[in-house]
Design brief:
Elements: H1 3-10, H2 13-82, H3 86-190, H4 195-200, H5 210-217, H6 220-235, H7 239-258, E1 265-267, E2 281-283, E3 293-298, E4 301-303, E5 309-311, E6 313-317
Parallel strand pairs: 2-6
Antiparallel strand pairs: 1-4, 3-6, 4-5
Helix pairs in contact: 1-3, 2-3, 3-7, 6-7
C-alpha cells in the first residue's frame, strides 16, 4: 500500500478506531502471555530445582550409606578371614547384596538427577527464546505505534495544509467572482464597440464569447495590442470606443498580473502640470516639444520587474 493511500485510510475515523483497538488487544494479549509464561517458568523452575535438590540430597545420602556399607563389608571381610563362622559369612553375603541394591539405587538416582538437570537446562533455553520472541513482538508493536503517530502527525499537517489551501481557494474564488462579474460587465460593454475596432482586436478576442474575452485578455501580449488600438481610437476622436477600451485595458492588466507570482505590470503615473519628459511621455499631434503637460490622453504602462517602459503616456504639451 502506498503512503498516500495509507494516509487516506487514516483519515477515516472508523479505521483509526480499529487500529487503536487492534493495538490495545495485541498489548493486552502480550501482557497476559508474559504473565502466563512467567508464572509457568517460576513454577517449573521451582519444581525442577526442588527435584534436582532432592536428587542431589538422596544421592549424597546414598553415597554415605554406600561408604558405610563398604566399611562394614571391609570389617566383616577382615573378621571373616580369621573365622569360618557361618553366621559371619551370611551376614557378609547379606551386606554385599544390600550394597549391590544400594549401588543400583544410586545409579538410578544419579540418572534422575541428570534428567532433572537436563530438563531444567531445556526450560532455561526455552525461557530465553520466549523472552527474545516477546521482546521482538513488543518492539514491533512499539515501531507500529511510532509509525502510526508519525502518520497521524503527517495527516494533521496535511489537514492544516488543506485547510489553508481551502481558505486560499475560497479567497481566490471570492476575488474571481468579483473580477469575473466585472469582466462580464465589460464584455457586455465591448459589444457596443464599433466594427472596425473589433476587427483590429480580432487577434486578442478571436470569438465573440465571454470565455474568449477572458482568456484573450489574460495574455501578456494582449496588453500591447489593446493599448495600440486604444491610442488610435483616442487620436481618431472615437470617444465611445476609447472609454470602453480603457476600462478593458485596466481589467486585462489585472488579469495578467493575477497570473503572475508578483504583479509585473503597472500604469505609468502622469498628471496635468507635470513637466514633459521624453523618457516617459510622447506628444499628441499639435503638441509643443517642450513644456508642461496640459492634457493626458492615454497613460502608458511599464514592466515593474525590469523597469522597462512598454508604452509611453500620450500627452498634450503647451
Amino acid at each position: 500500500m502506498f503512503k498516500d493511500e495509507l494516509l487516506d485510510l487514516l483519515d477515516d475515523k472508523d479505521v483509526r478506531r480499529k487500529i487503536f483497538k487492534i493495538i490495545g488487544a495485541v498489548n493486552e494479549e502480550l501482557e497476559e502471555e508474559i504473565f502466563r509464561l512467567q508464572e509457568k517458568l517460576k513454577s517449573t523452575l521451582a519444581e525442577k530445582d526442588f527435584m534436582a535438590y532432592e536428587a542431589a540430597k538422596k544421592f549424597s545420602e546414598l553415597e554415605e550409606e554406600n561408604f558405610r556399607l563398604k566399611e562394614e563389608v571391609q570389617t566383616l571381610a577382615e573378621k571373616n578371614s580369621d573365622s569360618n563362622d557361618e553366621v559371619q559369612s551370611q551376614k557378609l553375603f547379606s551386606l554385599e547384596s544390600e550394597m549391590h541394591n544400594l549401588t543400583e539405587k544410586l545409579k538410578a538416582t544419579f540418572a534422575d538427577k541428570n534428567s532433572a538437570l537436563n530438563q531444567l537446562d531445556s526450560l532455561r533455553k526455552e525461557n530465553f527464546y520466549l523472552k527474545n520472541t516477546l521482546s521482538k513482538a513488543q518492539q514491533q508493536v512499539k515501531n507500529f505505534q511510532s509509525d502510526l503517530e508519525n502518520y497521524q502527525r503527517e495527516l494533521d499537517a496535511a489537514h492544516n495544509k488543506i485547510s489553508r489551501l481551502k481558505n486560499s481557494v475560497d479567497e481566490l474564488n471570492a476575488q474571481l467572482e468579483t473580477r469575473f462579474n466585472r469582466g462580464w460587465e465589460l464584455f457586455q460593454n465591448y459589444q457596443r464597440v464599433g466594427a472596425n475596432t473589433r476587427q483590429l482586436l480580432k487577434g486578442v478576442f478571436p470569438r465573440d464569447d465571454f470565455t474568449s474575452f477572458i482568456c484573450g485578455g489574460a495574455q501578456t501580449n494582449s496588453l500591447e495590442t489593446i493599448w495600440d488600438v486604444l491610442r488610435d481610437c483616442i487620436i481618431g476622436g472615437n470617444r465611445q470606443d476609447s472609454e470602453i477600451l480603457w476600462e478593458i485595458f485596466e481589467y486585462c492588466l489585472e488579469l495578467v498580473n493575477a497570473s503572475k507570482v508578483k504583479a509585473s505590470y503597472s500604469v505609468l503615473p502622469v498628471k496635468v502640470g507635470d513637466r514633459f519628459d521624453s523618457d516617459f511621455h510622447i506628444e499628441a499631434p499639435g503638441s509643443r516639444a517642450q513644456g508642461k503637460i496640459s492634457a493626458v490622453y492615454l497613460p502608458g504602462y511599464k514592466n515593474d520587474y525590469n523597469g522597462y517602459i512598454i508604452k509611453k503616456s500620450v500627452v498634450q504639451v503647451s
